[in-house]
Every structure is written in structure tokens, then in C-alpha cells.
Amino acid sequence: MSGDCDFGLIGLAVMGENLALNVESRGYKVAVYNRTTSKVDDLMEGRAKGKNFVGTHTIEEFVKSVKRPRKLMMLVKAGPAVDALIEQLLPHCEPGDIIIDGGNEYYLHTERRVKEVEAAGLLYVGCGVSGGEEGALKGPSLMPGGSAEAWPHIKEMFQSIAAKVGPNDDIPCCEWLGAGGAGNYVKMVHNGIEYGDMQLICEAYQLLHELGGLTNDELYDVFEAWNAGELQSYLIEITRDIFSVKDEQGDGHLVDKILDVAGAKGTGKWMSQLALDLGVPSTLVTTAVFARGLSAQKEARVRASETLNGPSAASNPEMQAIAKSLVGDRAEFVEAVRQALYASKIVSYAQGFVQLQAASAEHGWGLDYGAAALLWRGGCIIRAQFLDRIKEAFDKDANLENLLLDEYFEKAVENAQEKWRKVVAVASIMGIPVPAFSTALCYYDGYRMARLPANLLQAQRDYFGAHTYQRTDQDGTFHTEWIQLRKEPKA
Ligand code: 2AM
């Protein structure tokens, strides 16, 4: 037996409730269920009153109220709760039904569940959902992956509820990404890129505020101007807004009263750990995670600030003159920081896509990189115009090895690099930490070197551990008795 609902949603916390309302608003009939069933009644009596919803109180009733093949989406706590729910759903489902997880799930759990659910004759989708509560209601960015057979069944509905972009606001931020845990992985990389973007903006802020002497009102104007150009993005826009908010409990701006200790929920850490496992240098996200870690050591930093001295540059007219000669007057400095931010951001996205490629190759997902760029274009936290360019780059070459090699980005970094280098140099001279600006620059310089000093590193490894090495002029594996051949030390 099956009912006449087009879609079922389990988990009526704010995200789930908003997503259900979004689906219903597009003309679909929606069944809802929640473990604590009073939430179902609250919704039915409240925001869903008079709308096309069916409230259910048991899993069986929930499943039976949806048309086959059923589209049943869970928005519950990630981890064991999802496994427990799948187990409860399966006995009531029928072959071909589709179970969708919209939680922020670790991708390997989804890899496993796709296999388990497919073995039971059903289909499984792990779908990243980004855009917070408002996005869920009005149009999130959706990142689905898993059983490919499920896509034709959910495509129309998912694309209808997703954020829309493009000149006519008709391109949905939702495309099929690939097999297994591809959707969750893309969502994780989205979050990791968000870590990098935020850290880069914070470094720009510190430079402009502490070195440039810009006030919050001036920072507002700078971010407003930046948001009208290449850097246009949601994060630049909200940063602009933050500089306008006054403290309701006292004088001045609220941003100056906020404790400088960063929180984190862990997706940046996941991406960093997985980058280490894959052996790909995603240095922006790792640096951003470590920068948050250092910020959290507030008491230790306060103690150290009383003992450890920075460069004398801050009070040395000669050094200040050098700094000024590098970056010019205030307006030139602001522009140099903008260019450093833009170039670093390009490197950050390049690294994110390299990691996606490595993960896709390892798991055989056949990930669609242009689709990933497209669906980050709207609805989500890293939404930015710039992603159109990334989509174009992957449309031109689906297997683009590195975004930096695309002509548009190659030129963009080339144009920005002089100012970018000067900003990193000045920050170093003046003792202002710019870990993300500088790690991005080091990646750029390392990546464009045909020869790195790893020849010496291999010699060291072979010297102390007989780890062997390869030669540039002959095939094979070599080992040298370095001690026998070395020059005798004097003493
Ligand atoms: P609850 O209202 O009964 O707590 C976010 O926590 C959402 O996940 C809530 O809707 C919550 O239901 C649901 N949730 C958390 N753990 C769950 C579990 N083990 N089984 C079913 N739903 C769960």
C-alpha cells in the first residue's frame, strides 16, 4: 500500500522543517515524521496548517503515505542515528524506493550505506545541504551523490527547491555529483574552502586595520567596494555588514568587543585529515584550521605577548620607510591587500579541486567538477561570482589538472602576484601573521617550480635510513654509502 505524498521528510528540527516547507511550496505533497512525535503535531498545527502536508506518528505510517518509488529524506543527527533510521525504514520500504540523507555526514558512512541499501534492493543518496536555515526554506545549495539510478527520480524536485543563479535566475544549484559519498565529500570541501575564505578575509582585516589604520567605517567602505568587483561573494558582503553594526550594550562597534577565540565544528579538520591521507597539499584549509587552533589558545597568547618581542620595524622609521616603499600610500595598500586576497583565494579553490580529483580517483566516483562549481554558485556560504569562472574552466577542460593552469586564472594570479608578494613581505617585516596569504604564495611558487630541493631530502633519507633514491639521468633505484664517499670531517 502506498499513499499519495510525493516526498517524505524525517527529522523536524529547523533545517528539516524548513526543507519540508520548501518542497511543499513547489507544489508537492509532503509526509513528515519525527522521533518525538509532538513535533509533528506542532508543525501540523503551526507552519504547515492549511498546507499540503500529512503528519505521521510511526515509521510505517510515514513510509506508507508516500507514492512509489518513495523519496524519503532524513535530516537527523549524523552518525548512528542515520543507521538506526535506515534499519527502521527498510522493512516498510519496497524495491526501488530512495532513501536520502541530507545531514552533514562523513562521506565514508555514506559509501557504506549506499552498498548496504542497494543490497536491499533500494537506492541511497547522500546529499550535502548548504545555506543554513534560511537556505533550506528559500533555496539551498544541494550536493547529491550515491546511487546514480536515483537521480532521474529526484532531479526535478531537488532542482525546483534549490537556489537559482544565472542572468535569468533559472540555473539550479543542484546537479548530480557522482557515486558513493561524492555528495558529502563535495559538501566537506565546500566547508573547507569556506574556512580558507574566512581566514583570508580575517588576514586582510588585520592588515588593513593594524597596518593601514583603517577604522570600522572605512573597512565598511573597502568591503563594499570589493564586493562590487572580482571578490563579490556572500562572505565579503556579510563582512561589510559586520563593520556597520554598533554594540547595543555600549559604545563603538560590536566586532571590537568579540573575544578573538574561533570555534569550529570539524569539517575543516576532516578535509585536512583527508588531504594528509591522500598526500595532496591542501595547505589553505589546514592553515585555516591551525589558525583557529592558535586563536583558541587565548590565555597562552596573552602570556606570550608580554614576553616575546616582534620586529623593531613598528617603531623603526627606516623599516617603516621600506614597508611604505613596498606598498605605497593607503589607497595603494588597500588595493595590494585586495589583490593578495584574490590570488590567495584562487590558490585555495585550486587546492580544493585538486583534493576532489584525488578523492574521486581513489573512490571511482566520476565526480563532475563543473557541477560542483555551479552548485556553490548560489545558496551556500562560499557563493560567489568567481565560481562562474571555475565552472567555465571545467567546461572547457573536464580534466583540468589544476585551476591555476586555466588561462583565466593563470592571468589573474600573474597580474596579482607582484602586489601579493609585497603584502606578504610587508606583513613579515612588520610582524603581522598572514598564514593563509603566505601559504597560498608558497604553494604557487612550489607548484610552478620544475625542480624543488627534494633532491637533497632524498639524499638525507638515503644517508640515514637507506631509503634509496631515483636519478634524473638513469632509470632504477639507487642507494649510496654516503659515509664512505663523504669528505672526512675535520674533528
Ligand atoms: P527528536 O526531535 O526526536 O530529538 C535533530 O537533532 C533531529 O534529529 C531531530 O529531529 C531529532 O529528533 C532527530 N534525531 C536525533 N537522533 C535521532 C535518532 N536516533 N532517531 C531519529 N531521529 C533522531
From TrEMBL:
Residues binding substrate, per UniProt: 104, 130-132, 190-191, 195, 265, 292, 461, 467
Recorded catalytic reaction(s): these are: 6-phospho-D-gluconate + NADP(+) = D-ribulose 5-phosphate + CO2 + NADPH
Its pathway, per UniProt, is:
Carbohydrate degradation; pentose phosphate pathway; D-ribulose 5-phosphate from D-glucose 6-phosphate (oxidative stage): step 3/3
Quote any Pfam family the record assigns.
Answer: 6PGD
Enzyme Commission code: 1.1.1.44
EC main group? oxidoreductase
Record's PANTHER family?
A: 6-PHOSPHOGLUCONATE DEHYDROGENASE
Family, according to the entry, reads as follows: Belongs to the 6-phosphogluconate dehydrogenase family.
NCBIfam families this protein is in?
gnd, PRK09287.1
Protein name (record):
6-phosphogluconate dehydrogenase, decarboxylating
Could you tell me which species this protein originates from? Neorhodopirellula pilleata
